[in-house]
Design a protein that fits this description.
Low-confidence stretches: 316-322
Shape: globular
Helix content: over 70%
Distance between the termini: 23 Å
Mean pLDDT: 88
Radius of gyration: 19 Å
Amino acid sequence: MISRVADALFWLGRYLERAESSARVGLVTRNLALDGELTPRQAWHPAVIVEGEEEAFRARHGDEAFADGEKVQDWLVWEETNLSSLSRSVAAARDNARSIREVVSLEVWEAVNELHLWMQADGREAWAEDRHAFYRHVRQAAQMALGVVHGTMLHDDAFDFILLGVMLERAGQTARILDVHHHALSRMAAHQVVEVALWLALLRACSGFEPFMKRFQGKASASTVARFLVLDARFPRSVTHCLHVASKRLARVRAADADLRGRSLPRLRALESWVIDEAGPHIDDGELHEFLTHVVDETHAIATDIGRELFGYPDPGAQRASQG
């Protein structure tokens, strides 16, 4: 497989996962902001941090705008200068799918293209009339597109590259969401009922509410939620599960070119082992921020190594500006 095709497959997976995650965070945060227990800033500021756009948003709108839910949502969904916005992610997924139409199945192309076209037309109306329905539609459409990938494509190198992108993106997203909300909760003197509601909202932001309740049939707490989202290998969005699957897919891709040497696979395996060994002590000691920051930084660095080793990027700065 030529590097251009592999690159597009990898980013198709990442952008679909990023769009789905952004829609979930927007939906959960909006519901959280409506319950009246939190100030608007407490609800919306973490959503901007999760997307890695805190400084850019502050420079554009000022610090007080973090309390304006409409401005925050517009920035996270429609802002063209925000490379991580939901609309930019959907458009980038479609551009990548279009460039490799001969590799992905017809059903995959149709699912991605339909989401993109909906965003440009009916999505605008849904945004204005029913924000809840808008987020749900994007989330379900992105999930359907990823499901179509599993159900209609050969599970060959092309599938491996898509799933590798999905799992690296998902591991970073889960770690970032947990880090931001755990850090915010540790600084907030919240009533016990409010604190439980916030932990449950965090689980919903990671699509983990029902699986968590089946796994831990007690009160949600900092320790139990963190252990579930980081270490439970049976939960498909846990950091451990995502890193394990990403490692397996990268190993399959690298096995096809045994003469190619690089550090991405050893680095990914080392991160997986480190998470399993170190997560428990950090959770017990309440020192998750540094741990999760390392996970986010390492997943980003591994993706950069993969780009250099497999996609022909001459150096980390050579990645396409639209793919961050």
